[in-house]
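Example 3.2
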Amino acid sequence: MSEDDTKTAVIIEDDPDVRSLLDEVFRAAGFRTVLAGTGLEGVAAVVAHEPIITTLDINLPGIDGFEAARRIRAVSATFIIMLSALGEESDVVLGLTSGADEYLVKPFRPRELRARIEALLRRPRNAHPAAAGAAETDRAPQPARAAHAGSATGASADGQQTPARNPSVAPAVALPGTAGHWRVHRDISLDPVTHTVVVAQREVELTPTEFDLLATLLESKRRVRSKADLALVLRGEAFGSASYVGEPDKRAIEAHMANLRRKIGDSTADPRYIETVRGVGYRLTAHADEASAEV
């Protein structure tokens, strides 16, 4: 892939004025831009140009932005910024559930969009889903810490049942032998180097945002991370930063967390991996021995 390819943005917008404004913002940020006026044209442009970032309107001719996001997410790891005049919480949740990484309400400030672009560029991008899956088939046996992984009967090392298989989980894969790279909790394993997540010995495909949230929680272990903390992580900023985190950002974290839990087979009512600390934030669940010690 050439240097130009690594700085490509696809802009999917049917309003010529907004499309022109987006084009100016991305060009000022050093991007080569590809413009599309419909959802189908935009999906085709993403496949053809493999952009780092894609902006996506919701009210598009033909398929809408929600469907376009789902189709893009099925074939690409591009960061998706959804732009829409629809600002209700249900619209934001639906956009993020469709696969978007960011949701900005129109009219937006170009400086805010530029800040979101720069934050996304500071985050590592997952490999193309198909390519990543092919690479994993050549990997070596599981890491030393795989004692937490579930057995063939579906029971984990601590005797609890593993979550039921869900559509986001790919066929069973072997984990690489580089155990030092892996972060493990119960039977979920994450490798920040290859952007691989394995739950009960099966690979799970996450969006870049969902991956970053899970990686942060695995690194934090039992330390609670607030929604503001997690929003700062997604911006590429340090915990405790003085940057303002608004309610829309916090609602976005809630939506991303709901998607993450669904994909890894977790439950808010009976959490196995991630628990909500009401009024504070999120943290990993305790292992069986830790839970017994707390009783």
